[in-house]
Amino acid sequence: MKKLAIFGTSGFAKELLDLALDQGYTDICFLEKEAGQNQTLLGFPVFLESEIVGVANIDFTIGIAAPKIRQKIYEFYPHLNFPNLIHSQATLGFGIREQLHHSKGVIIAAGARVTNSCSFGDFVVVSFNCTIGHDCKFDSYVSIMPGVNLSGCIHVGTGVYIGTNAAILPGKGPLELKKLGEHSIIGAGAVVLKNTLVHTTYVGAPAKELKRND
After folding, report:
1. Which of 39, 41, 38 minimizes the C-alpha distance to 12?
2. Known catalytic residue: 102?
3. What is the layout of strands, in order, in the sheet containing 149-150?
4. 3-state SS assignment for residue 47
5. Which end of the chain is more exposed for a tag (fewer CB within 10 A), N or C?
6. Considering 134, 155, 183, 199, which one is annotated as catalytic?
7. For the chain, what are the domain ranges?
């Protein structure tokens, strides 16, 4: 029996339930720091983190879209097993599945399409119906929300959050990638034409700097 515990009870955690079932997990629970007795979510039990993290033979995933929170959870529980979860209806290009063997905690949802010559760090989220072109590089803890298009030759820094239906136009080539600075936020529907700065929010089409994320 495959067992999976999902950190969180938010909407993203509920979406991961579908992915877990697709991947053959039959014994699934959700984890919260504080949970009442006999609490359930979608018919599945909700436990305190402290009740589950010491149990053997359980896989874990993080059902929280915010990059910084995902990073904090992993750094608090680095000894847990965080497998990659790749939906059976996601499309991976040549060599991507093999490349992902070097990563942990990656989530790729149904309908996502990843072409070849891409690389992934740890705990990258690629949500529903995203398209990722060739020669994209993702550092760890990146969140790519539904419907995002990355057109190719893009380096996405650690902790970047890309909002729903944003479009990132391509870099000049594999040796000159467009760069999204670490911990930058790309707003929903934004169209990014240029490199972005670190710790900065961008919105609009074309995307313009809105504020620093200090």
Report:
1. 41
2. no
3. 91-92, 113-114, 131-132, 149-150, 167-168, 191-192
4. strand
5. C
6. 134
7. 3-76, 85-204
Q: What are the angstrom distances between the C-alpha of 14 and each of 24, 30, 34, 130?
A: 16, 9, 17, 19
For β-strands 91-92 and 113-114, DSSP reports them as parallel
- Coil vs helix vs strand at 70: helix
Per CATH, the architecture of 3-76 is what?
Answer: 3-Layer(aba) Sandwich (3.40)
Per-residue pLDDT for the chain (214 aa), expressed as one digit of tens each? 699 999 999 999 999 999 999 999 999 999 998 866 678 999 999 999 988 888 889 999 999 999 999 999 999 999 999 999 999 999 999 999 999 999 999 999 999 999 999 999 999 999 999 999 999 999 999 999 999 999 999 999 999 999 999 999 999 999 999 999 999 999 999 999 999 999 999 999 999 999 888 7
**CA–CA dist 46, 168 (Å, integer):** 38
Residue 212's CB is within 10 A of a number of other CB atoms, namely 11
End-to-end CA distance of the chain: 45
Task: Please classify residue 54 by burial: count the beta carbons closer than 10 Å to its beta carbon, then call 0-12 exposed, 13-18 middle and 19+ buried.
Answer: exposed
How far is Cα 115 from Cα 148, in angstroms, rounded to an integer?
A: 14
85-204 CATH, one of 3.40.50.300, 2.160.10.10, 3.40.50.720, 3.30.43.10:
2.160.10.10
The CA R_g of the chain, rounded to the nearest whole Å, is 17
The model's pTM = 0.95
